[in-house]
Amino acid sequence: MTAITLPARPRPFWRQLVGFNLLTGIIGAIIGWLIGALIGNAIHAPSLDYYSAQAGQNDIAVLLGYLFGVIGFLVGLGFANYPIRRMMGHPPTLAEHESAGEGAGRYFRLCTDHKVVSIQYIIGIGVFFLVGGINAMLIRVELLQPNVHAFGANQYLTLVGVHGAMMMGIMTSGVLGPFANWVVPLMIGTRRMAFPRIESFTFWLLMAAGVVLVTTVFFGGFQTGWTGYQPLADQGTAGYDAYICFFALVGLSMCLLGINLIATIVTMRAPGMTWSRLPIFVWSVLATASLMALAAPMLIAALLMGALDRTAQTAFYVAGNGGSAYLFQNLFWVFGHPEVYIVALPGFGIVLELLPVFSRKPLWGYRLAVAGMLGVALLSFFVWQHHLFVSGINADLRPFYMLSTELISLPTGFVFVCAMGTIWRGRIRFTVPMLFCMGWVFNFLFGGISGVFLSDVPSDVTTHGSFFSMAHFHYTIMGGLVFTLFAAIYYWGPKMTGFSFDERLGKIHFWTLFISFNSTFGPLFALGLLGQPRRVVTYPSNLQPLNDWVSVSAFVIGLSMLVFLYNLIWSQLIRRERSPDNPWNSKSAEWQLPTPVPVYDFERFPVFDRHPYPYGVESAPAPNAVPAGAE
Amino acid sequence: MNEVNHWRRVVLWWLLATVICTPLVVFVLAPGLPPGNGSEQAAGQVVDNTVLLGLSTPVTLAVLVYFTYAMIAFREREPAATVLDGPHIDGNATIQTWWLIVTTTLVLFLAGYGTVRMLADGAGGGQGPNPIAAPAQSKGALQVQVIAQQWKFTYRWPGYGGVETSTLVLPTNRTVEMHVTSLDVIHSFWAYQLGVKADANPGFDNIAYVTTRGPLTFNVRCAELCGVFHGYMFDHGRVVSPAAFSSWIKQAQTRYAGVTKTLPPYAPSYEPDPQRRGG
User: N or C, fewer C-beta in 10 Å, chain B?
Assistant: First the structure.
């Protein structure tokens, strides 16, 4: 199979010098910020702002600065070029930003090649994951001692808030950004996403969001945690404006990413890729993308109202003026609960996609697995008030929310039984990705079982808002998402970059992470039951031994991540050992392509004529071997 | 090599693990579970946790034993260069149906059980201004208003002339109706040993019931992030004999008589000043 090559576009000399790329983007961001702040300071009336005025800050200027800064960043990256060219009468084209014939520079500019965007996503998200992780380490440093403080109470809460927001905001796209963008077009047999410019847009928007969140430290941080509850938020300095802007940008990015993936999966499948031949990972992406597209607008609306409360003197969340503090809680969790399944579902897909490869058996109960994912997606919109079980709102609806929350364990159970059926009587190979999948099984089992306690109202009265619930969602999100994310990196990484990972380092990474993860978050269940509420800067001194144990284990998690970082740099940048085309002997479509995958993926569109997991079938042909490649 | 009956082995291992672990969990671990037996509601939560643990232990063990067995029994013993496939089994309608039946039954039972337990006495949770679940003796319940503000709880007694105290003292063996409200941001009143947790919202009356038992000292903590000193928002309350309680409240009434006069009249909730927006 030969790659389609495009004639390299001749670029004018001045364009090679000034852009459009990340550098012009940053310049645009700075110019935009200055314009926004200028306007904000001009229209701001001193009599009106009673939030940040005491801190000498102007919410309007800060919010407009962020808004114009992000617009300037995107214009600087070149996102305005194509619409302007079209308005001026130029013909529609897609080739303008494809990556053929470009070097490493393509990773620093608008690129519509889905494979380039995926690499951008991995690195970009990785940087912010590192920031969030360092925050977690600092939180555990503070909690080493109940009465000796490494940070002030305000600094501590900002660390907690940035850690939570970073992990729940940026990492929401942790699997879909890098892996769905990369693998879905290849699995369903298309050369690009439905909206390639929007694909790149979602990435750069997410990066802008991450930077905005970090800048909260210049405005005093925010004290609300990642949930940003009103009316506490009203007391916040302009640091809370950074939170608003961050989550609104993340929401926009998520929503567009979801729409893009849905459109791609629904409309761009190759001939023969019927719904019942869709690989299970694509189903999980479809379920997740639907949640993203439907849930994220709720978040954006909630934050917009918060921004108006802070700047335009509205009173959506002000109890005394006809608003309600419950409104924010409700809107936030209408988004927030689908959000946690947005984080969990891609993990289900990765595990069920990888188990057949390493058990050498077809996926057991394909339809049940699909039903499980769609069921989780559907039910996730009907459970949000379990976050408000003791809040006093709609107390008579608690039996319903108890039922709906516990019902979610049924479709989750489908995923488990399909995983169990798949490995039964297989020929299991414990490669690094397989180890991470097994780690997921263990972690998510405990995450799920502890969720049953939280969904039961009498039991929840003890555990609500305590370290128990914190341990629960770390088991499902870190034990679920992060473990499967690493499985995906070790599994698809060699195909994406062309270089294989060091397996020994990978195994060290897995075992240290698995043990230290459980040693960190297991005791947190006990701490919660013993009465430690979340987000406290101090705690009873009799809880210190357990807290110290947890802190030390958390530092081992940090070391384990350094092992991964070392493996990544050593294997991908220094050793650079060529990966074979199909190191795992997978029968999935993406592994039948040459490594690295050519710019336009397929020379001809593949035709699919069978189930995606033909393991144990005599001489099953590779999926796209039928017409493609045969000139 | 004889064909091994893997199914039978997994089931036997699971039975063995369940028979050993479930009684340990139910009879050794569960009785020591928080929040203890400080009140009817707390004891009820312990019972609830015991039932949940008793049911989830066999389920957890089933998955753990299954995966452990499968990983050991079905590992590729001598990974050859040519990768061999396992058998082409892509589903089993009977197993899938049974899985569905068993898990659905379990879930419906849990939801039903939780609902019944919650409706019996409110389970100590906040239920808003119109509670749907109250203990049997709630008619003549002792009323106390819990007022949360940054970063302190105070307690107001409508039955005793609206006096406001800075500690919570309750009589033994009495049903107490707690009206939890806030003056600024959202807090959560968590009386740990009493098994009470109720969010405190500004402008909102959140009612939680508790039926006290014997004398004890309990911890009160704020369980909802409420600003920088959230971590320091805790105090201690006491459950004392009815005689000690009435002498304590009389003392408080006399001592704070001057303060009580300057307080706003008792109300289910107090609107925060909107111009200051809780701060």
Answer: N
